[in-house]
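TICKET: design request
STATUS: open
ATTACHED STRUCTURE:
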């Protein structure tokens, strides 16, 4: 579940809420302020959940040197990062490759990979080590092709999404469960929505999205009494 941008206290509160939900993987949004402030926010999350799995999402906000500086500072504080998603601008393949070469932390492309052609270019440039597939970004057919390229290259996979309801997220959950091999699952936006106008789809139990009850398609339906 995502720790959105904000203050150190807000990051701490978010980590407490996520932990209370039974979730132990934290995706911390960074890059909205100085990298040193982000270090403090990540440390706050780590202190709340010292055994948690920490992912960083830069949303393309960093230069390669600043991204590496942040990682070195976190390493100095003994913070283990499982994945660094899109540290530099989506069009900056040389910068993405520089971060990948400069750290042992797996680097994941998000905005940099929308099509199979993007995926192939990233593999050829050794610009990252993982892809975030979003069906709202790539579509199902191109998502399948991107996954095939990743698996052939030995890249890790994340399934993600935009700000989506349980309808779209259930389709993505079925996509990932059907293909297999996804090391990271980031399908959390329904937890941020005030209401859910749908029935069916996956069933969430703590950190688990269970799709076994879906008989066909994505399993989501609109109640008959809905306006």
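STATUS: resolved
RESOLUTION: sequence designed for all positions
ATTACHED SEQUENCE:
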């Amino acid at each position: 579940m995502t720790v959105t941008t904000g203050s150190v206290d807000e990051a701490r509160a978010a980590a407490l809420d996520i932990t209370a939900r039974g979730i132990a993987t934290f995706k911390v949004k960074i890059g909205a302020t100085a990298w040193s402030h982000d270090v403090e926010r990540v440390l706050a999350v780590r202190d709340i959940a010292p055994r948690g799995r920490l992912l960083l999402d830069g949303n393309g906000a960093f230069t390669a040197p600043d991204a590496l500086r942040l990682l070195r500072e976190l390493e100095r504080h003994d913070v283990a990062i499982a994945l660094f998603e899109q540290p530099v601008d989506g069009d900056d393949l040389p910068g993405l490759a520089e971060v990948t070469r400069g750290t042992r932390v797996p680097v994941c492309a998000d905005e940099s990979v929308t099509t199979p052609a993007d995926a192939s270019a990233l593999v050829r440039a050794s610009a990252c080590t993982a892809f975030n597939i979003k069906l709202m970004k790539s579509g199902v057919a191109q998502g399948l092709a991107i996954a095939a390229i990743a698996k052939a290259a030995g890249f890790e996979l994340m399934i993600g999404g935009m700000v989506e309801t349980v309808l779209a997220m259930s389709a993505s959950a079925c996509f990932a469960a059907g293909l297999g091999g996804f090391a990271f699952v980031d399908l959390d936006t329904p937890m941020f929505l005030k209401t859910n106008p749908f029935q069916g789809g996956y069933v969430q139990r703590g950190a688990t999205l269970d799709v076994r009850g879906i008989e066909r398609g994505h399993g989501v339906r609109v109640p008959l009494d809905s306006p």
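CLOSING REMARK: The longest strand covers residues 25-29. Helices lie at 8-20, 35-48, 64-76, 93-102, 116-124, 135-138, 140-153, 166-179.
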